[in-house]
Amino acid sequence: MVFSPSDSSKQVEYLKAIESLNIARFQKLIDYEIYGNQLIHAPFMAMEWADGESLHWTDTSPANLSHRQKIIQAIAEATLDLLQIQRPGDSAKKYITSRINGKIGRALGGKYAGGGVEGCRKQLDLLDEFWEPDLNIAQHVLIHGDLSDTNIIVNGSSDVKKIIDLGWSDMVPLQFAAVYPRFLTYQPAEVCSDNGGVVSFDWSVKHTTIMMRDRAFYLDCIKQRAYSEAGIALDFYKVLNRHDESRRYWWFRAVHQLDAHRAMVACDWDPGHTG
How far separated are the first and last CA of the chain, in Å rounded? Predict the structure, then answer.
């Protein structure tokens, strides 16, 4: 795997921290060179082999409920395990405000591909609705950032063998780390015109009884361990259990991702069918 020096340096740091704490299920780092070597003139990381296949997750696959719950339980455990990796950082409010203000600055200069300044300012106006003041100075914690099907390797019995690819991993304020894994989020579908342009977003497509059941089980997995361990795990659970979790999640995603920003602007920052 070849990366830029900054990307590989960050991932190496996180992978070493994961291994030092013996956190299970994550792919191990075998070798790396931040600036390349005589054979490979670019930064690289050599990872251990992940034996199995990428998770295929839909409302009907895996078909066996116990297999689905086994996978969900494993991902919940891995997510909470990562909370052990912490460091001080900006307050949550400063962290998010600086990033949205950066978008506003780019939009004012006509350099933000996500749209105009009005949408960015509306996002900033919503900050106090989604910000958790009691956790404002909590530690920054490690998140995987992309717990989607392709990054979860399972065997034929639906055991999670490895979690791979920390390309989206980051240290974020605890209150913004408390999200569902991507395969359990209400990803909107793009609605396109005849010429292929995106005209709107359909938020109802993944709002199914199966998805709601699976999300409820994930939340219960987090809850059981949170009340057993207390501390940071309990704070994580309480944020995840907010009644507006899905709307808050997409508001936060829109800080960093153009597609999420466009989708939220299109629904005036209030997607339906995400409860």
Answer: 38
Starting at the edge strand found earlier in the chain, the sheet holding 170-173 runs: 86-87, 140-143, 170-173
Tell me the C-alpha distance between 216 and 245, whole Å.
12
Output the CA angle 219-220-221, nearest 5 degrees.
Answer: 90
DSSP state of 87: E
CA distance 10 to 176: 19
Cβ neighbours for 61, distance < 8 A, ≥ 6 positions apart? none
Structure tokens at 108: 């004012």
- The lowest-confidence range among 46-60, 189-203, 232-246 is 189-203
Q: Under a CB-based contact definition with an 8 Å cutoff, are residues 184 and 146 in contact?
A: no
Average model confidence (pLDDT) for the chain? 92
Map out the domains of the chain with their CATH numbers.
1-49 (no CATH), 50-266 (3.90.1200)
Q: Does the pLDDT value for residue 193 go beyond 80?
A: no
Copy the structure tokens of residue 186: 């209400």
**Is the pLDDT reported for residue 195 higher than 80?**
no
In this structure, is the dihedral angle defined by the CA atoms of residues 112, 117, 122 and 126, taken in order, positive or negative? positive
Amino acid 85: pLDDT: 98
